[in-house]
Design goal:
The chain has 145 residues and is α+β, with helices and mostly antiparallel strands. Helix content is 23%, strand content 15%. The structure holds zinc ion (ZN). Zinc ion is lined by residues 116, 118-119, 121, 133-134, 136-137.
Length: 145
């Protein structure tokens, strides 16, 4: 399986010494191909990615994103039916977070959704779109009966 449509940064990835040891003992590791000879991109079995290479999901868990870097390697599992691309943690960028101004804008928008246009009071719940006003106003105008 090749990472079609992705630019590959290098043809050879880091070796995993434990897996190299198994290969040297004649054990064939289907999804271990650090040189990319068989798969066209450095390939590792599930849970055997070398240190410093992380999946998008693993980067996200660390508050990082690939940041435009190419795919460096891949993990294959379920007999090659599943693939996850690996990125270098060293080249990753911090996840974009909202600026204070954006936070304020979001808070304002959420408050607006809790503010009744009829009585102008801010409620603890979102104003139902179907009513267009708070439950108190709706009840007073007979919309709920
Ligand atoms: Zn109201």
């Amino acid at each position: 399986m090749h990472a079609t449509g992705y630019t590959c940064a290098q043809t050879t990835g880091p070796h995993v010494s434990a897996l190299d040891a198994l290969s040297q003992r004649g054990i064939y590791l289907k999804h271990y191909d650090p040189t990319g000879t068989r798969y066209g991109i450095p390939t590792y079995p599930y849970r055997w990615a070398p240190a410093g290479l992380l999946t998008r999901r693993q980067l996200r868990a660390k508050g990082l994103r690939p940041g435009g870097q190419p795919v460096h390697a891949q993990i294959l599992w379920r007999d090659g039916a599943r693939v996850a691309y690996l990125y270098r943690e060293a080249d990753a960028k911090p996840k974009r977070t909202a600026t204070p101004a954006q936070h304020a804008a979001i808070a304002k928008a959420l408050k607006a959704r809790r503010t009744c246009s009829s009585c102008g009071r801010t409620k603890s719940y979102y104003i139902p779109r179907s009513l267009g006003e708070c439950l108190d106003c709706a009840e007073a105008s007979g919309a709920l009966s």
